[in-house]
Amino acid sequence: MTESLYILTGASRGLGAALAEQLVQQAGTTLLGLSRTPHPKLDALARAAGTRCEQWPVDLADPLAAAARLGVWLTAQDGAHFASATLINNAAALPRIALLEASDATELSRVVRVGLEAPLLLTAGFLRATRDWAATRKVLNISSGLGRQPMAAQVAYCAVKAGLDHATRALALEGGARVVSIAPGVIDTDMQTALRGSDPAGFPDHALFVEMKQRGQLDAPAATARRLLAYLQRADFGRQPVADVRDA
């Protein structure tokens, strides 16, 4: 039992891509990445590092199928092979930046499915399939400050992240795995680009996001990924089920 298993959603873009790249370069890693499109460089990075990597093209807007497939895959693994097994629920869908009354119903449904329903179903399947493993089991949910601080024109995203936080608090009470929902800070990703490029007339906080970029207050995805992976290795991981990586 020397290897570490990681299951990572949203592994091909932004923070997820940075996490995936760093994970496959850690000795003894087996990474399963779930994304709508594969990370184009990940397999080569894994081969160069001598680690194991598998990528699934998965649309988490269909979370029942994704969770079922994960459960079957985990059941087929030899749990005795792994010293630890970690699920990182990173994927999220950002809706069009608009007031709720102007939002598209199909888009709102996708945001909730990808950002909240999928993590719940994947976590349930992960815990069920690994319950007899001797490995240390962890679940890291990537939350957001918007789950704790409301913002107009992003009602669905705020609701998803707040739900992820509170689900993590409840799951921590059940025991069996060490779980944390963590806000990763403000990262220079496509989400920030979308927020800055939105129509100020429908987004009251537009100027704030433009100013953060101008002042260099956005963290690089790679730097945030390093902090998150270091947090995962902390001896007290799970003691505080809702956390902020900047407070670590």
Describe the 3D structure.
It is a single chain. The chain has 248 residues and is an alpha/beta fold. Helices cover 42% and strands 18% of the residues. Strand 5 (136-142), helix 5 (155-174) and strand 6 form a beta-alpha-beta unit. 40% of the residues are buried.
**N-to-C CA distance:** 29 Å
The major sheet is characterized as: 7 strands, parallel
Strand order of the largest sheet: 3-2-1-4-5-6-7
How many DSSP E strands? 7
Task: Kindly report the average pLDDT value.
Answer: 92
Structural class: alpha/beta
Bin the strand percentage. Answer: 15-25%
Gyration radius over CA:
18 Å
The share of residues in helices is 40-55%
Q: Which properties best describe this structure?
A:
seven-stranded parallel β-sheet; globular; alpha/beta; 248 residues; single chain
In short:
It contains eight helices and seven strands, in the order βαβαβαβαβαβαααβ.
Topology readout:
Elements: E1 3-9, H1 14-23, E2 29-35, H2 42-49, E3 52-57, H3 63-75, E4 82-89, H4 105-130, E5 136-142, H5 155-174, E6 178-183, H6 190-196, H7 206-214, H8 221-232, E7 242-244
Parallel strand pairs: 1-2, 1-4, 2-3, 4-5, 5-6, 6-7
Helix pairs in contact: 1-8, 3-4, 4-5
